[in-house]
Protein 1
Amino acid sequence: MTDVEIPSEQWAQVVERSGGPVVYKKIPVRKPGPDEVLINVKYSGVCHTDLHAMKGDWPLATKLPLVGGHEGAGVVVARGELVRDVEVGEHAGIKWLNGSCLACAFCMQADEPLCPHALLSGYTVDGSFQQYAVAKAAHVAHIPPECALDAVAPVLCAGITVYKGLKESGARAGQHVAVVGAGGGLGSMAVQYARAMGLRVIGIDGGEDKGKSCKSLGAEAYVDFKISADVVADVKAATDDGLGPHAALMTAMSDKPFQQATGYIRSRGTIVCIGMPTGAELRAPVFDTVVRMVTIKGSYVGNRQDTQEALDFFRRGLVTVPYETVGLSELQNVYQLMEERKIVGRYVVDTSK
Ligand code: NAD
Ligand code: ZN
Ligand code: ZN
C-alpha cells in the first residue's frame, strides 16, 4: 500500500473520562479502512470545541476514551484500497467533519455537515491530537503544498467556519459586519476573511490586547465589552450612518452578546450564530424581529467546497492566523489559558513534542 514506514505506536493526548484532564500517552496507530486515509499529523490547532469535548458540556456525547482535535495538518502516509483521489505524500487536513454518508438528502446537496450519519473528528471519532489520524478520504482537506502546515492548521476549523458564516450572512462588499469574539481563534480569522471579502469590520471582545490584535488584522473599529457602558450604542456608532452593522458573526462562547446583537443589528440585517455557549438560548423580541425584518440563523462548519475556498484565501496570503506553537504534551496548559480567555488568536500543537 505504501513505502512510508509507519510505527505501531504513537504519542497522543487522550480524554479518558468526560471532564478531563487529557492524558499524554502512547496508543496504537490505527490502520485506514478501504475508504480511509492515514495522515501523519504534524500540527493541530486547538479549537474551543476541543475544550467543550473534554468537558463534555454539550448535549451530544463524545466517544470515550477520546483523542480530540480537528484542525490537523499533515502528510498522507497510507490509504485504503478504494481511495483514488488522495495520494500518499499529499498534504492533507483532518477537519471537524471526518466523514459523512454521501447519500442522504443533505449530503446529496453538499450540506454534509447536516448528515445524520456524520463522523466528527475529536468528538465521535478520534481526531488530530495524535501523530497518526484516520479520516474518510472523501472529506479530507487538500492542503496546497506551498502552505506551511503549522500556519494553515487553524484554517481547517476556524477558517472554514467563519468563511462559511460570512457567506451565510449575505453581507456584501462595502457593508459593515460585527465580529463578536474578534480576538479569539474563530474571531481573528473572521476579521481577516471579512476584510478579504470587502466587508468593513467592527471587532467586539474584551481587553486591550485583543483590541490591538483585531485592529492589526484589519478591523476598522473595536468595542471592548468589558469597558463599554453601552455595547449596542457603541457598535451602532461605529457604522457610517449609525444604523448598525448589516451582519453580526457570533463567535463568542458566552450568551450575553447574542442579546446585544439583536439590539444593534441593522434592520434587514442577519445575525449568524457560530459559537455554542453551554446551555445558551437565543432570546429576541418578536416585535422588533418582525418590524425590522431581522434574520437570526446558525452556521455550522462548511462543506468540502467551502473548505477548499477557505484554504485558497490562505494560500493567496489574504488571511494569516496569529498563532503560537507548543508541544502536543502541553495541551492541558492550552486548555487552561483558553478557559481563562487569555488566548489571542490560536494555539497550535506540534505533535513531535
Ligand atoms: P476562543 O476561546 O479562541 O475565542 C472566543 C472569544 O470570545 C475570546 O476571545 C473571548 O474573549 C471572547 N468573548 C467571550 N465573551 C465575550 C463577550 N461577551 N463579547 C465578546 N467576546 C467575548 O474560541 P474559538 O475557538 O474561537 O471558538 C468559539 C466558539 O465557536 C466555541 O463555542 C466553539 O465551540 C464554537 N465553534 C463553532 C463552530 C461552528 O461550526 N459553528 C466551529 C468551531 C467552533
Ligand atoms: Zn473547531
Ligand atoms: Zn449523509
Protein 2
Amino acid sequence: MADGQRRLVAVSNRVGPLNDEGKAGGLAVGLSDALKRRGGLWFGWSGDTSEQGTFSEAQTEVQDSVSMTTIDMNQEELEGFYFGYANRSLWPLLHYRLDLAQFDRQSERVYRSVNQRFAARLAPLLDDDDIVWVHDYHFFFLGSELRQCGFEGRIGFFLHIPFCPPEIFTALPASHDIVRAMLAYDLVGFQTDTDRRNFLAFCIRELGGQKLSDNRIRVGDRVVTARVFPIGIDAPGYERFAVSPEAGEHEEMLRDIAGERLQIVGVDRMDYSKGLVERFRGFERLLEDYPENRGNVQFLQVAPLSRSELGAYVELRRELEELAGHINGRFATLDWTPIQIMTRGFTRRALAGIYRAARVCLVTPLRDGMNLVAKEFVAAQDPDDPGVLVLSRFAGARAELPDALIVNPYSTDDVASALQRALTMPFDERKRRWEGMREAVFAGTSEIWCDTFIEALENADASLPEDAPQ
Ligand code: ADQ
C-alpha cells in the first residue's frame, strides 16, 4: 500500500489466486489485478467445506502486499448459499432468466445467515479508516450486516453481473429486502448504464425513492450513489502475455493444425448465460448457407465446466455435446472436423496464444455483465494481422466496443451472416476496427476501474439534502 493511502479491503465469494493459474472467472481476474497493484486485505470463502463452516478458524496467506483471509463453509451453507440462493435464484434472475430461477425460503435463510456471519468475522479485522469494497451478488446483505456490527467507515458494492429490470426482479420474494440492504452501501457500482437505470427504477417504483441528481437517490433516510464502472483488463500486461513463449507455443500449435483454414474461437465458462447453444446453431447455419466455408474454417470452443453440480448446467453440457456431435456428423470429412469443444482450463498466457491464432472470436452471450474475454481477445491480437470480434448486443462490453461486429445472439441468421462477414473482411477494415477496439480496451483498464471506484467511494456523499423533509 502506498503511503497515505487508506487500506483497501475487498470481499468476494472466492479469494485469489494472484498468479497466472488457469482460473475461469472474470471477477478473480479483475480483482487480483487490482489488489496486486494496491495491496490490502482480500476476504472471502476458502473454497473448502468443514463442519464448523463459517465458524471455522480464519486462514491467512500473505503474498506480496496482499493478505488473503478466508473461512470455510459447512455443507449446508454451501448448498443453501452458493448453489442454492446465489446460483439457483439470483444468477438466473439477474440474467433475465425467470424461467430458470428457483426460489425457496430455506436457501434464502441460509444466504442471509452466511452474509451475517461473513460480516461478523470481517468486522474485527477492520480499522475505522479502511475502505471496504464488497463484490457481487453473493453479498448483497454484507454491507448492512457490517453496519449492524458497528462499522462506520466507507463501504462500496460492485455488481459484476447485470441488474435486471424491476418487472423481473420483483418476482424474487426478497427483492425489496435486497435492494433496501444495498442502500446501506455508500456507493453501488454497475457495469453498464442499463443496469444502473434498472436499479434506480426499482428504488423509485418499488421503494418510493426520489432522485436527488443523476447519480444519487434517496430512499427514506438513506442516500446512495449509483454509478457505472465498466470493468477492464490489465491491457498492457495482457498484451505482453500474448507474446510470451507459452502463448507462442499455443498459437503455433493451433496455426499448425489449422493450416490454411481460418480459426474461429469461443472462450466461456460453460454457462447458459453465454449463449453457447445459439452460437453453435449460428455456426451450423454458416456452413449451411455459405458452403464455401466447409473444409475452410474450424471452430474451437473452450468451455471450462462451471457449477456442474446444478441441473441446468448438466443439461447445458449434454445439449452442447450433442449439438457439436450433430454438426460434426453432418459436415465433417475424413480430414476436417468443423467444431471442437474443450472443457479444460488454460493459463492466461496459453489463452492469449489461442486468441492470437484466431481470425474470429465469438462472444455471443444472451446476457452478460461485461465479458472480459472480448477485451482479452482484442489485447492479444497481432497488429499486423488482427482478428475480428463478433459481439453480442447483450454483453456489457458492447458499450465500449462499437467497432466489433454487433449481433443479436438469438438470431441464428444474424450470427451466421456476421461470421461470414468477419471471415471475409478485407485487411484494412479488420485493422481499422481492431485499432478502435484496442484504444477502448487500453482506455478502460482494470487499474482505471479500481482507481475510479475507490475515488468515487471516498467521495460519495451520503448526506441528506438540507431541505429534505424528515
Ligand atoms: P464471467 O461470467 O466468468 O465473469 P468473463 O468476464 O468473460 O465472464 O470472464 C471469464 C474469465 O475467465 C476471463 O478472464 C477468461 O480468460 C477466463 N477463462 C475462461 N475460460 C478459461 C479457461 N479455459 N482457462 C482459464 N481461464 C479461462 C463475471 C461476469 C462478467 C464480468 C466479469 C468481471 O459474468 O460479465 O465481465 O465477472 O466483472
